Amino acid sequence: MDRRRALTAAGGLATGAFLSLAGRPSPAAASAPGPVPADAAQYTNPVIWQDFADIDVIRVGSTYYASASTMHYSPGAPVLRSYDLVNWELAGHSVPVLDFGAKYDLSGARGYVRGIWASSLAYRSSNRTFYWLGQIDFARTYVYTATAVEGPWSRLTTISTPYYDAGLLVDTDDTLYVAYGNTTISVAQLSPDGRNQVRTQQVFTTPSSVGTLEGSRFYKINGQYYIFLTRPANGQYILKSSGGPFGPYTMRQVLLDLRGPIPGGGVPHQGGLVQTQSGAWYYLAFVDAYPGGRMPALAPVTWTPDGWPVVHLVNGAWGTSYPSPAVPTPPRQVTPMTGVDTFDGTSLKPRWEWNHNPDNTKWSVDNGLTLQTATVTNDLYWARNTLTHRIQGPTSTATAQLDFSAMRDGDRAGLALLRDSSAWIGVQRDGGATRVAMVNGLTMDGNWNTTGTGTEVASAPVSGGRIWLRASADIRPGSARPGTFSYSTDGTNFTRLGPSFSMGNDWRFFMGYRFALFNHATQALGGAVRVLRFELSTP
User: Fold this and answer.
1) 212, 215, 319, 384: which one has the fewest Cβ atoms less than 10 Å from its Cβ?
2) Strand spans (E) along 404-464
3) To which H or E segment does residue 6 belong?
4) pTM
């Protein structure tokens, strides 16, 4: 079942039809060669146990970069950085704001399960510039550029052709090509400045025996052109042309129904190929692992004498561990994706993304995060300025220190487990009285319309102006998993509040659960809270 049909239809698809978890190895896969010395450095999959899907990965000099989908979250298209393909940090975002229509502002409409997905990241050495390219809403394609991944990123152009699931190639002669499509695969050539389409041509039609192919990644390797394609969500195929970027192409299966490295998770697929400085090749894919999302996994790749990639397997499966890539000593340690954020400075760190575009007049960072109420609503899914953070798997805990002294009657502020079925713990002020409450039953239907605004299931009175809110999440895939909530008035002793919340594992929302900080009004604007500290920790 392909994503395009899922995104344009109302849903109603069985998870089993999307995730094939059988263990049949691919003919083009090979077992890992020979035993590994006991003292050899190893890495463990997933290399990132956070939700980063539809990966495009490149190397620029001695640094690796990867881009991922973010749907309706803003800023979009995160850029990750690594020096060894194993340890990654968040460096920035290629799309600073989702200025693709009012629905991405939660203004009269909503952009859930739209926005940024299956886009491409490339580097053009001739002008020392990074390029991000992606289509939005099946309508048009946007190109952003920057000379450093941290930004600033700016929009270079808009192209009227929507390059679905695009892969951008900077050829050895500096020409820009884009591979794209769903089942029918095409290649476009861009103008030298990257602003316009010069030519587009269909280059391949997927055989009916294979079904759907999408998720293009475009490469030129040893003079041959390759389009790396996914069969969602259980296979990977590759097209090869010796005759140029417009083909003709022949196809080979890379993997199908391959057991993945996460127990209960799916088949590794839809990622990218990258070569290390020493000439070794790796495949960085993602594994469907709901309720947490889609987690990056890394495997070595070799090439057959006639130029086809082969994934190294361990006992007929994608390995849970492999020898670490042989790369130079990193110049520094990357910034961990867990730990404490005290919101120092005056801007948010790249680990944070808003649910839709924020109202920038209603929040600020200045050695603490201030969230003013930006929306009057009883529906968290309509509330602007909800700030999200990925959950670290397999289990992790988020703790937020909240100053609620400036809340007003009717305000709701707290810490949520956010997805199409959500729950939260937070502070509610009504009639001059303040209480901490656990609320569940926030739900959406398959068209992402709200079907439940939540039910308060437990509460306790609180006084003063400061509270610590805690949410713990088990995001191991395979079944619905529990999330729990607690609070503290001293930062040390925590009290459990409410029952366990069952986090659903339906794939159709695509993005996994996130921790979310929110503050919205139900009566009138004017209130505010201040988040003094946020900590993401693992057992």
Assistant:
1) 212
2) 411-418, 421-430, 433-444, 450-461
3) helix 3-8
4) 0.94
